[in-house]
Amino acid sequence: MSVEQQMHVGSLHRYPVKSMLGESVPLLDVGHGGAEGDRRLALIDDETGRVASAKQARLWRQLLTCSARTDDDGRVWVRLPDGADVPADDAAFAPTMTTLLGRPVRLATQRMPGASVERADPEQVLDQGLDAEVDAPLLELAEATPGESFVDLAPLHVITAATLAHIGTEALRYRPNIVVATPPGHPPYSENDWEGEVFSAGPVRLKGMGPTPRCVIPTLAHGTLDRAAHALRTPAAENLVESFGLGRLPCAGAYFEVITEGRICVGDRFARV
Question: A Pfam family this protein belongs to (predicted)?
Fold first, then answer.
């Protein structure tokens, strides 16, 4: 059996509210617009109309102190830093988040045309500090994704256990949907070679779109996890690659589009078709 044939779905993840911590799940129902329940909600800055994202750490890093989950009835609950659980559809949710974040926000349940986030220059943030005024160009969301979710670009994000182990960081910092378990000796950054390749994960067929460029988010504190500059600095030193016409950027993982819809389960073989 080849090394590639030994790859399988090691874990599955979704993030019901954009830029909050998410949940590990045993299965994901996947459609052309991505994973069901993933990035389906977002907070909107009342002052600018932009989507709140920890990519602009100066304003929104407190989102990473919250975690979101979806219950059996499809209702999204958010756990606040003090341990309280608040339903996202409750009238008190937006005021509670406004108090936590220090900026007026409202909840959005579908992506509006032209929805964008501020993507603070990650190296400037690391060099100048979390509260520094740094370059922050606008990034229009989900340009390669049908539907109404608040994904950054593509329907699904996949990363290998080999890449995570090599960099030495937790999967949650990179916010993948699928972590692919890899056998001993599997090379890190193999995701670079997946562009245009079709993979199966259970009955689902996925097509690689290109390496995933990394922003400042992986370096930030996540819940009880401290800051981790190496989550960006390591791929910046080792894996600068062309990504989506944006130039040579530090990358880890790969984006995928969905060719055949279906259900992916932990343990499913992940293999090139």
Answer: MOSC_N
- C-alpha–C-alpha distance, residues 218 and 159, integer Å: 14
Residue 228, C-beta contacts closer than 8 angstroms, at least 6 positions apart: 169, 173, 218, 219
Tokens of 255: 């984006």
- Specify the CATH class of 4-272 in words: mainly beta
pTM across the whole model: 0.95
Nearest Cα neighbor of 251 from 266, 269, 231 is 231
How does strand 178-181 pair with strand 156-160?
A: parallel
For residues 132 and 151, what is the distance between their CA atoms, to the nearest angstrom? 26
Query: What residues does each domain of the chain span?
Result: 4-272
Strand, helix or coil for residue 179: strand
Distance from chain centroid for Cα 264: 18
- Helix residue spans in 22-135 (DSSP H): 57-60, 93-101, 122-128
CA distance 160 to 272: 14
Alpha helices in the chain (DSSP H): 57-60, 93-101, 122-128, 161-167, 230-238
From CA 248, how far away is CA 85, in angstroms rounded? 41
Q: State how far the alpha carbon of 42 is from the alpha carbons of 62, 134, 140, 209, in Å.
A: 14, 23, 14, 24
Alpha carbon of residue 129 to chain centroid = 23
List average pLDDT for each run of 10 residues in the chain, which is 273 residues long.
74 98 98 97 97 97 98 97 97 97 97 94 94 94 89 96 98 98 97 98 97 97 96 97 90 98 98 96
